[in-house]
Every structure is written in structure tokens, then in C-alpha cells.
Amino acid sequence: MAYTRTQAQKLLTAAELTLFDAGRSNVVRTLDKTTVRGKLERARKLRDKYRDLYRRQRVAMRDTAGSKGGSRGTANQRTQQKEEILAEVVVRFEDRLAKIERQEDLDFAKAQKQVPVASSASGLKKAVKKAVAKKAAARKASAKKAAAKTSGKAPAKAAKRAGKTTRRNQSLADSAVEPKAVATQPRARTISAHQRSSNQRAQARRDSR
After folding, report:
1. Quick one: average pLDDT of 16-45?
2. % of the chain surpassing 90 pLDDT
3. pTM over 0.70
4. What's the Cα-to-Cα distance from 106 to each of 32, 98, 101, 102, 203, rounded to whole Å?
5. Staple 50 to which of 66, 82, 178, 204, CB 3.0 to 4.6 Å?
6. 209 to 43, 147, 164, 195: CA distances (angstroms)
7. Helix count (H) and strand count (E) of the chain?
């Protein structure tokens, strides 16, 4: 059976009574985790204090009264009651602390469920950025390779074009010389025929004389 405030007030000091009041149901549920821990630590120390005192008193009473239980005496009974009251206070603070920690666990579990979504979105964003950068680098490398290939082919193409131009010019030059030679040969034959004809006519005139 739990002790009432009236009973506790008769047994506890003012500071102990304040701790008892803080452990009452209508007050303890308003306390935060840090406050509960502080009061729980204080209540445990007082409970252990009166528990040890009660044990020592029992030993002393057993020696003086000759009773194996050693539970006689008003002082011994009051100490026992104080230990019991403070043990109740300890339980109340422990219950409140456990409730706070359960709520924290629930909140943490909810937060953990939302983490993969945010993580996957962030990972997707990073993957997209990485893919875009990779494609840009590939395009840049391809452009450099094409430019190098083009610059290497340019001199060869120029030399090839120069060779074609030279051969074309040589062909034109040759074609320009050949007609003159061809034209010169008929003229020489014409001159030679004319001379032979003149000689023949001159010989004919001499023969007619």
C-alpha cells in the first residue's frame, strides 16, 4: 500500500518531502528527462541511506533486545518507513524515465524510416551529377581526339592536293608543247615539198632549152 502525503509529511524532512511531491503522478509526468534523472539519483541515495541505517539499527536492536529480528523500537520502525517511502518515489521516477525513453525510441524509429528516402534521393542526385560529369568529360575527350586527328590529316591532305596540282600543271604544260611540235612538222614538210617542186620546175625549164 502506497504512502499518502500526510503519512510522508510526518516522517520526511522538508527536502525529502519536496522530492516526494515531485514523484506524485500529477507532477512527475510534467518533468523532462534531465530533471527526472536528477531527482531519481537523489531519491536512490536517500533510499539506500535509510536502508543501510535500518539494517544497522536492526543489528543494534537485536544485540540489545535479544531478538533475532531486531525490529523492535520506534526509531527502527520510522527508518524502515522512510526507506519504503523513498523506494516508492524511486519507482515513480524510474517509471517516468522509462516512459520518456520509450517515446524517444519511437521517435528515433520514425526518423530512421525517413532516412532511407532522403538518402536514396541524395544518392540519386549524386549519381545523376556524376553521370552528367562523366558524359561531359567523354565529349571533351572525343572532341580533343577529333581535333588531333584532323590536325594530323591536314598536312597530308595539303601535300596530296599540292601533288595533284603539280601533276595537273605538268600535264597542261606538256599538252601546250605537243601541239607546237605537231604544228611544226607539217610546216617543215610543206617547205620541203615546195623546195622540191621549185627544183623540179627549174629542171624542167633547163631541159626545155
Report:
1. 95
2. 40
3. no
4. 17, 12, 9, 6, 145
5. 82
6. 177, 94, 69, 22
7. 5, 0
Q: Mean per-residue pLDDT for 67-91?
A: 82
Contact 21, 27 (CB under 8 A): yes
Contact 6, 30 (CB under 8 A): no
Residue 196 Cα to chain centre, angstroms: 110
**How far is CA 5 from each of CA 2, 20, 23, 54, 109, rounded to the nearest angstrom?**
10, 8, 11, 22, 39
Cα–Cα distance between 87 and 47 in angstroms, integer? 6
DSSP-derived secondary structure for 57-72: HHHHHHHHH--SS---
Rounded (5°) CA angle 16-40-102:
145
| Distance from C-alpha of 139 to C-alpha of 147, rounded to nearest angstrom | 12
Helix 14-22 with 74-208: angle, nearest 10 deg: 50
**Those residues with Cβ within 8 angstroms of residue 8's Cβ, 6 or more apart along the chain or in another chain:** 17, 20, 85
Query: What's the farthest any 2 CA atoms get from each other in the chain?
Result: 205
133-137, 162-166, 172-176: segment of lowest average pLDDT: 172-176
